Amino acid sequence: MLTGALLTYIKPSGHVPRSLGSVISQMEATCNEVILVTNQPRALLAHVPSSTRVLSGYNGMDWPLGGLYAALSLSRNPFVWAVDVDSPFLSPTFAHQLLEQIVRGNEHAAFPVIHGLPLLHHAIYRKRCHDTLYDLVTKDMATWDHFLDKIKWTKQEPPGLNGPELTFDSAGPIEKKQEAL
Questions:
Q1: pTM score, whole prediction
Q2: CA distance linking residue 61 with residue 83, whole number of Å
Q3: What is the rounded CA–CA span in Å between residue 12 and residue 124?
Q4: pLDDT tens digit sequence for 126-174
Q5: What radius of gyration, in Å, describes the C-alpha atoms of the chain?
Q6: Three-point CA angle 137, 138, 139, nearest 5°
Q7: Long-range contacts of 136-142 (CB under 8 A, 24+ apart)
Q8: Sign of dihedral through CA atoms 29, 34, 40, 44?
Q9: Residue 84, strand partner residues
Q10: How remote is the C-alpha of 10 from its chain's centroid?
Q11: Residue-wise over 1-12: b if at least 16 C-beta within 10 A, else e?
């Protein structure tokens, strides 16, 4: 029912994130499929279990949207939990709360919100969001803003994670969307 999609962008230095193994382990405990989407799949093959599918992100889009596109395209399940390897938190319990929110409200996606900003690549997406991204790619409009304008989405604050000590670097141009929240 749920695919865990770990979106991992490897910088030119080739540094493999230290948290990779622990994030995969947490996803394996929650998801019946785990995929790793990266810009350098060969660099990570030796660092993941054989049960993890390693995919290349879609090159026609900026990262991490290109990684999300690949994950949605190749997921074997109707829902995808897309997580950046450097996310400020990882909570399988909260992921299931987001999933329940999508199913209950017939949403396309559910995002955690921290300090009023949605974490676009630490969210639950319906696989059918791929169709929306495909349409945007064919129109050369594949950006986070256009994507969010086209899908029905919801938000939820993770319990206990909005304190002043928590900071993060959210991907994508979300400033316009913050006003709509």
A1: 0.85
A2: 17
A3: 29
A4: 999 999 999 998 898 989 899 999 999 999 988 765 444 444 443 433 3
A5: 15
A6: 90
A7: 137/58, 137/60, 137/61, 137/69, 142/60, 142/61, 142/65, 142/69
A8: positive
A9: 7
A10: 16
A11: ebbbbbbbbbee
Tokens of 124: 């639950």
Q: Which of 78, 79, 76 is nearest to 96 (CA)?
A: 79
Could you tell me which residues are beta bridge partners of residue 111?
A: 155
Is pLDDT at 4 greater than 90 in this prediction?
yes
Q: Which amino acid is at 172?
A: G
Domains of the chain and any CATH numbers: 2-176 (3.90.550.10)
Q: Which of 47, 114, 33, 9 is nearest to 81 (CA)?
A: 33
**Which single residue is written with the structure tokens 């991907």?**
171
Kindly tell me if the per-residue pLDDT of 103 is higher than 90.
Answer: yes
3-state secondary structure of 138: helix
Length of the chain, in residues = 181
Q: Which two tokens stand for residue 126?
A: 């319906």
